[in-house]
Structures are given as structure tokens and as C-alpha cells.
Write a structure and sequence with these properties.
This protein has 311 residues and is mainly beta. 0% of the residues lie in helices and 39% in strands.
Length: 311
């Protein structure tokens, strides 16, 4: 029999993206209608060889803000991408090339793409987050006929994917000089991330979003300080595998408490947990790990406030 909050724990679903957006590799694709009305959407997938995407031809424009994230699959070095990637921004087709983990901020109305995976040393991960419950887009095929430029009008939208926590915050206590957070310090539990990057609205041109990426290999409880916390805004917790040959493989089993009575939910496949505004959640415990896995938070606020629920 379903528990009270079973509807908030959902397996990730492989779906076909909108036509012309991505090539044929399997991809998780979830929108607000799949996420109990969450006011955002996301996708997740791997790229193992050079290809063109987002879109595969022309450029694309959205009526909502978007972040495009490119990270590596080497769980021992979160700052290693393992590929060379380019993206075109604006009607000017301004080309930007990067070979480090990067987030591209796409304000609504800005034509962008295509993205080209030019070189691949090791498979990479690309996930996207859109600030609207439904993905909406128009593909502009005529832009493909315009010449490329190499100016810097949009360079501020291309960000190295590293952490910039506020000085004095608990996150600052576990971040090193390279912008990587380490769960082995700062009073965080053993199940938390080996290496984590977390970016905030101030890093993302003022967007009302903060999100993370991390690699996880250890068993145990993730947090110290209390049993459950809440957030003033909606949040999703996304658990994903790192095997580019099997997107449905997580490689670990986790247990998550949901609601004021810590209703326990256990899962061992790629999963999203939906936390409505003010909803108590945790404790989060990694029960076993066969293979390193990935995890990202997406919270619909420029800041990340996590008050503990008083016992």
C-alpha cells in the first residue's frame, strides 16, 4: 500500500525530447506535470562522442530562463570535464568554447545553440534546468546561415561551474580554494558528497535558482544538526547514475525521510524527490553503494535556506 508521501518520490523517466533538440541517446526528461506541479523542469543524459545538440540545427529560444550544465564523469576529480564543448549565443552567433565543467546561463528570449561536443576524452554529463513548469521553445533555423562571431558580448553568461558560498556560511566552511565543497569537513555526515559544487542566484546573473552537482561513494547519514529541515521555496532532489552505458543504473540504495513523521522511502534506481515549499524532509541515509553515483539539488530561490525542524 502506498505511503502518504509516495507521490513525492518518483523514478526518473527516459522520454524523447522535443524534436530537433537532442540526438538519439537516451535522456531523462521531466516537467512540472511529472513533478507534482514543481515550477521547473530538467533533463539529464550522457555524451560519449562528438555530436551536436540543443538544437541539432539552427538556434533555439525559450520564454523562460534556463541553465545548461556540463560536467564530467570522473568521480575522483569534479573539476575535470574530459571534453571540449562550444556553444553559440545570441543572434550574433557568438561562439564560446570551454573544456572545464561549465554552466551556461540562458536568459529568456536569448537565441542560443547549437551546442557542439567537439572532442571527448571521457564521457560527459549534460543536464539542463528550466525555470518554468513546461519546456517551451522555438527553433530558429534561419540563424544557421549567419556567420559566427567571436566577440565577448555574452561571455558573462558562460560560468565555470565552481562554488562561491557566502563568507561565514556553513557551506563556506566546507569549500576549498578551488570552489569545491568536501563533505569530510565541517560537521557533515559521512554519506554526503565526496566533492560537491553548488551555485547560487548571485552566480547565475540573478536567477531565482540555486543548484548543485556532486559525486557520492560512501554509506551513512548525510547531515548532522537535526532530523529534518525545510526550505522556504520548492526543491527537488535528483539522484542519478554515472554509467554512460546504462542511464537507468544508480549503483546505490538510499533511504529518505519525508514529512514531519519522517516517513521512510527506499530506492535504488535513478529517482527524484519533490519537496514542496516548507515541507519537512530528511534524514537522508545511503544504505549501500556498489558504484559511485551523482546527485543534484535544484531549489527555486537564489539563496539556500535550510532551517532545521525543531523536535
Amino acid at each position: 500500500m502506498d505511503k502518504e508521501y509516495s507521490h513525492l518520490i518518483k523514478p526518473l523517466v527516459v522520454k524523447s525530447p522535443p524534436e530537433g533538440l537532442y540526438p538519439t541517446e537516451p535522456r531523462f526528461w521531466m516537467e512540472g506535470k511529472d513533478l507534482e506541479g514543481f515550477q521547473g523542469h530538467f533533463s539529464y543524459g550522457f555524451y560519449k562522442k562528438p555530436t551536436t545538440l540543443h538544437p541539432t540545427e539552427g538556434s533555439v529560444v525559450h520564454p523562460h530562463d534556463e541553465c545548461l550544465v556540463f560536467v564530467g564523469t570522473d568521480h575522483t576529480n569534479i573539476l575535470y570535464l574530459g571534453a571540449e564543448v562550444s556553444i553559440e549565443l545570441g543572434e550574433e552567433r557568438e561562439e564560446h568554447i570551454f573544456n572545464e565543467p561549465t554552466v551556461i546561463v540562458i536568459p529568456k528570449g536569448l537565441p542560443h545553440g547549437p551546442v557542439k561536443i567537439n572532442k571527448v576524452e571521457k564521457p560527459i554529463i549534460h543536464y539542463s534546468i528550466g525555470l518554468g513548469p513546461e519546456y517551451k521553445a522555438e527553433i530558429l533555423y534561419e540563424n544557421a546561415t549567419k556567420p559566427k562571431t567571436n566577440s565577448n558580448k555574452y561571455s558573462h553568461l558562460v560560468k565555470k561551474f565552481i562554488s562561491h558560498p557566502e563568507p561565514g556560511s556553513s557551506m563556506a566552511d566546507i569549500a576549498d580554494e578551488k570552489g569545491v565543497m568536501h563533505a569530510s569537513t565541517g560537521g557533515v555526515g559521512p554519506g554526503n558528497g565526496d566533492e560537491v559544487v553548488w551555485v547560487f542566484g548571485k552566480d547565475l546573473e540573478g536567477l531565482e535558482i540555486n543548484f548543485s552537482w556532486g559525486f557520492y561513494t560512501q554509506c551513512g547519514k548525510w547531515h548532522r544538526g537535526g532530523e529534518a529541515h525545510t526550505h522556504p521555496e520548492e526543491e527537488i532532489l535528483v539522484y542519478v547514475g554515472l554509467d554512460p552505458e546504462n542511464i537507468d543504473y544508480l549503483g546505490a540504495e538510499l533511504e529518505l525521510g519525508m514529512g514531519k513523521d519522517y516517513e521512510r522511502h527506499i530506492f535504488n534506481t535513478p529517482t527524484v524527490a519533490i519537496c514542496p515549499q516548507g515541507f519537512p524532509h530528511l534524514p537522508l541515509i545511503t544504505r549501500w553503494v556498489d558504484k559511485p553515483y551523482g546527485f543534484f539539488v535544484c531549489c527555486l530561490s537564489g539563496d539556500h535556506d535550510s532551517p532545521w525542524v525543531e523536535a
